[in-house]
Write a structure and sequence with these properties.
The structure is a homodimer.
Chain A: H1 10-13, E1 19-20, H2 34-44, H3 47-51, H4 62-76, E2 85-88, H5 90-101, E3 108-113, H6 117-125, E4 129-136, E5 139-140, H7 142-155, E6 159-164, H8 178-190, E7 195-198, H9 216-219, E8 225-230, E9 242-245, H10 248-255, H11 258-263, H12 268-279, H13 282-308, E10 314-315, E11 323-327, H14 334-343, E12 346-347, E13 349-350, E14 364-368, H15 374-389
Parallel strand pairs in A: 1-12, 3-4, 3-6, 6-7, 7-8
Antiparallel strand pairs in A: 2-9, 4-5, 8-9, 10-11, 11-14, 13-14
Chain lengths: ~400, ~400
Amino acid sequence: MSTNIDVESAPQGTGANTISLLLGHPDPSTLMKPDLQTTIQQLLSQPQGLKALQYGSEQGAPTLIRFLVEKINREQGLAIGAANIMIVGGSTHAVDMIARLYANEGDVVLVEAPSYTDSLHIFRDHGLELRGLPMDEQGLIPAELVRQITRLKAEGKRIAFMYTIPTFHNPTGVTLTEERKRMIARIAQANGIRIVEDDVYRDLAFDGEAMLPTTFYALMQGENVFSIGSFSKTLAPGLRVGWLVGKAGEIENFVNCGTTQMGGGANPFAAQIVAEYCRSGQWTAHVEQLRSLYQRRCETTLAALKHYMPSTVHWTHPTGGFFIWLTLPQGFVAADFKKTALAHGVAVASGAGFFVHPDDGKRCIRLAFSFAALPDIERGVQILGGLLSG
Amino acid sequence: MSTNIDVESAPQGTGANTISLLLGHPDPSTLMKPDLQTTIQQLLSQPQGLKALQYGSEQGAPTLIRFLVEKINREQGLAIGAANIMIVGGSTHAVDMIARLYANEGDVVLVEAPSYTDSLHIFRDHGLELRGLPMDEQGLIPAELVRQITRLKAEGKRIAFMYTIPTFHNPTGVTLTEERKRMIARIAQANGIRIVEDDVYRDLAFDGEAMLPTTFYALMQGENVFSIGSFSKTLAPGLRVGWLVGKAGEIENFVNCGTTQMGGGANPFAAQIVAEYCRSGQWTAHVEQLRSLYQRRCETTLAALKHYMPSTVHWTHPTGGFFIWLTLPQGFVAADFKKTALAHGVAVASGAGFFVHPDDGKRCIRLAFSFAALPDIERGVQILGGLLSG
């Protein structure tokens, strides 16, 4: 998770005297729970612990893969098998591997406008061209996808894939509606466009996973679609463990690629810790607690916005995840406001970095309610409100 | 470390009833030592433990960077600073990042013939063209480098970098001599060719680091050269922790690239374990033990080869690392011999996979003395000798 959304403020943004609404970091109090400590301690004296220090299975810890197969099939009414999953070193690893193996330099990657800064950065590092697809409070706009496809066909450009964060989107917190998701899936299928679904916030649905729209993976029956999950938001980012779902033959490509073969599977030791924590049922219970914890933080933030913001400020209303997206009144420039806010002790992310064309975000800021303590969130929003009302 | 050198035999190669001279895996008995267990247990109750579960510093754990700066400066008589080092998720991560950020599709990467299978695989995954540089018992042959550079200039091809494993080379076990290293450094400097030095076996010098040739990084005073180190061979591959040395501005490029920003530093939790293990002096003591352990294994293997192999078989004489390289008598085909050996209960790696042009390795096999127990190594070599004498 970039501390680099705007470099200059990152240090202050995480400094002691600044209220950080900048970073999508999990609540620190949720990271080293006694049950996780116990899991790690037990692992050290078990054969799996020793095994996990050696080069691992390229596909990933079988215990963890079994757990994820059951979870995904139960939650999404699917019938995937172990061959459809690979353990990865966080969503970063999956996004990078997909860009390496499923795109060529000069190809176009379609992304939401706005989208996740660091994924855009990875695509650029691979020499890929980015095209932004406008979105609103219901998520990506299908007509914009059609328009972009037509334009690219005319330009003779190859589309490598569409990268989307459909659930509790980063940076907006918006969830793509079921209706639009089905339309987009049909458009993608009709045009042979692969969808890369970055769904790392899905497990943080305040009302539970059952209330969420179907995944792209389910809608497209696993054809021409990759789905990415992660334990970074729901256990510990520092372990670097996530998962990638795809067709068996495609997962095989990832398992057999150079980095996987050389490294011997993604973070075997950390993945074994996660595997044990999941197998024992502790992770499922932990996620339940996180859902209500982040729901409370989100509600506090929304209430504070309602109370302290002038009517000229608009914001999204997430039902899960870490983020709320603000549109500032006419005349405000987010990059400048960000500096002013920081000078008053509140760190926020200005919108420009989330867009292929920075100007599109010049009146937007992202608030993360995941990291700061509740009273700080309230005070932070009050300060921001004051600055915007002045 | 690929189990995929030849896929078909990998499972048997690691099976219970087969003597595996196939894989460059560390001796399992060295992996979960009580002092490492203690280090991990202590970390769980320390603030650094909690911190290491959050997104980490993009450059890597400061404690570990400090330790590596001192180690490298002491061993190589350099004066690098923290800005010259980045912690990576094993050498895999460094090799992949370099290919992503310092090469474009279609560029040429110069590699030793033979070279490390999985690095070749990573370069191919990035759409890079490989050219092999012949080597002998003294390592890469400078004249061959000059010849290849001339040829590529004539072809109008761009050389992204030269990838070399100068110390206890994988797969041959050969160490590039000081004299040749200086010649190659001069050739590279004269032609503006970047050198990527994969030096992950350097710490396993049987007679100690002081007896080794200078590194390319030192010879080239850090100009146009990257040096890669790893804890996979000297602590635990499953932790996925290594380091990358380069110019401050270049390390900054890696720290600021998309994957680093998104992931928040390479494996923060595992890296903190390694940091504590190094800071306390335990790693240095551990490496001392590994050196004599692997020296004994190497000597046992060489003695067995001398005793059991017909005079028509030739092999290298490593002074460190994990591997010995055999050239089979006329008339033998390594790929077939590998199958025969496996049928007789010994797994070896056939040479083809280590070459850009597989035919160049058709009479060669790699023996790893790192993994199997001493009596098994001896028995394995005896079986191989019998098959080659028949």
